[in-house]
Amino acid sequence: MEIDADYFLQIPTRCVAISRRTIYTATWQATWTCTIPASLKAHPQYSTGNRKVLGKFKSETGSLAPKKIVGLRAKTYSLSVPEKPTHNKIRVKGVKRSYVNQNVRHQQFVQILSTLTGTTSKFRTFRSKRHTVATVEVTKICLNAFDDKRYILSDGMRTLAYGHKDIAAAAATAVVVAE
Question: In terms of residue numbers, what domain contains 169?
Fold first, then answer.
């Protein structure tokens, strides 16, 4: 889903989109959960106490807020910062970062989301097999709009985790609507 948000935070298990102009005063009031970027040293709640502490909210784009966010699956997302394109963040799980930096763009995320297709990546990497290191060419799924960890409801926007108690009811209503 593409989100126009003023700010984006990520925790390993979920993403939170916040649409507010005063993000730092609204979110960082509970400084025990967040880290204020070093670029905002003048902020009244700036502290170095939470720097590099695991489990704390951190800004992936510094003090600049991303304007477009596309999250395709778990750990596969793109944050677009039009003011400074060097601050764009593109992450694809399981694909080498050098391949992502050279070949994957935010517009591809938008296209994959709208056409519901997928792309593959082909790159070389080092692999060790029986204590022998070799260079291997690997082909992996790069971008894919189908989240294999979530059940997509009939509206195409809302999802439920597999194993959720309401999936059976949602599947039954989807069959009735299709008939």
Answer: 149-179
